[in-house]
Amino acid sequence: MARFAEARGEADREWPYVAILVARLVDAVVPEVEGPAGVAVNVADADGSMLFPPVAGIVPDACAVDVEAESAGVA
Predict the structure, then answer these.
(1) What is the DSSP code string of the chain?
(2) Per-residue b/e over 4-21, b at no fewer than 16 CB within 10 Å?
(3) How many CB atoms within 10 Å of residue 44?
(4) Which end of the chain, C or N, has fewer beta carbons within 10 A?
(5) Rounded CA separation 25/61 (Å)
(6) How many CA atoms lie within 13 A of 7 on its CB side?
(7) Which are the contacts of 15, defined by CB distance < 8 A and separation ≥ 6?
(8) pLDDT exceeds 70 at position 69
(9) What is the 3-state secondary structure (H, E, C) of 42-54?
(10) Which residues pair with 52 in a beta bridge?
C-alpha cells in the first residue's frame, strides 16, 4: 500500500484500510458475488501477490467453476 501511495504522489497522507482474514473473505464475501469469484491478494506487489482461482477447495463449491451446479446445491 505504501508503494501505491508513493506512486500516486500521495505518500504524505493517511490511507485508511481494512485488514481481513482471507478465510473470512472467502467464506463471507465470495458467496455474495453473482457468479464465479476468485481472490486476488496484494496484486500491486510483484513479490507478494497471490491469486486464488474460483475452484473447489479454494472458494465455496457454489462459487467454483469446476463443480457442477447440481452437486454444489444450486438449482
Answers:
(1) -HHHHHHTT-TTS--------HHHIIIIIGGGSSS---EEESTT-TTT-EEE-S-BTTB-GGG-TTS-TTTTT--
(2) eeeeeeeeeeeeeeeeee
(3) 10
(4) C
(5) 15
(6) 6
(7) 1, 5
(8) no
(9) CCCCCCCCEEECC
(10) 39
Is the pTM above the cut of 0.70?
Answer: no
Residue 12: per-residue pLDDT: 93
pLDDT tens, position by position, 20-68: 777 787 788 888 888 777 887 777 777 878 888 889 888 888 888 998 7
Place of cell 501505491: 4
Amino acid, res. 44 = A
Does residue 72 carry a pLDDT above 80?
A: no
- Residue 52's identity, in one-letter code, is F
* Contact predicate 60/26, CB 8 Å: yes
